[in-house]
Amino acid sequence: MKRIKPSVCAFAAACSLTLFAARDNNLADFPRYKGETDDAPRFQRAIDASASGVLTVPGDDYTFAHTVYVSNLCSIVMSPSARIKAVAKMDWMIKIDAMWQYNRRTTPKGVNSEQYNLTYRGGTLDANGLASCLAIDNYRHFTLENATFLNGKVYGVGIETTGRGYEMIARNLFIKTNIPGLAGNTGLYTYGGDSHYTDIIVTDYTTGVHFAGREQTV
User: Which of 24, 40, 91, 132 could serve as a FRET partner for 65 with CA atoms 20 to 30 Å apart?
Assistant: First the structure.
């Protein structure tokens, strides 16, 4: 499978961060600004304010018109009833790059790179045939669980499509295509090694699961 080229914007969020002590936040405290017509900007602000912390996303319907980047070791915990739908073309809905954890030479001063409980949990990403749902790259132990990924144009979930990583703990994922015209897509792609994948259901993607790289445990 052809590996996707990294976006030139992949580190945009990291470059704009002001470093401070780890802090947990709730998306409800980050409303849309005047003139904003989708929720991606408020998600980005909330993630940028949650370096090394946890962003909690309450149950609601949200829309993304462009990719949200997580490059500051923020974990995301969504309510089971939180649903995010793509409303414009983009490469990914959410792209997580944990390089600060994977390569400590890149870690800014004052940030603890020895964080092994990074997680993405809960909610639904509906790519609506306009994007891939979730990318995770450059991690050292990461937990992905209890989440739904719908209608990925290329991927439902892409693990190591542009970076490296090991020890992905992925469980209780539901990955489904329910709209036409997405032939050629892949539900779960992974190039990572030393990982565990359990209780994952993939329905109606052209390729259900593609283990492209090193040793996996299923």
Answer: 24
Full-model pTM: 0.88
In a domain, 5, yes or no: no
CA separation, residue 171 to residues 55, 90, 121, 142 (Å): 20, 26, 10, 11
**Strand segments (E) across the chain:** 25-26, 54-57, 61-64, 68-70, 75-78, 83-86, 92-97, 119-121, 124-126, 132-137, 139-150, 155-159, 165-176, 186-190, 195-203, 207-211, 216-217
pLDDT of 86-134, one tens digit each?
Answer: 999 999 999 999 999 999 889 888 888 888 999 999 999 999 999 999 9
Strand, helix or coil for residue 164:
coil
Task: List the CATH number of the domain containing 203.
Answer: 2.160.20.10
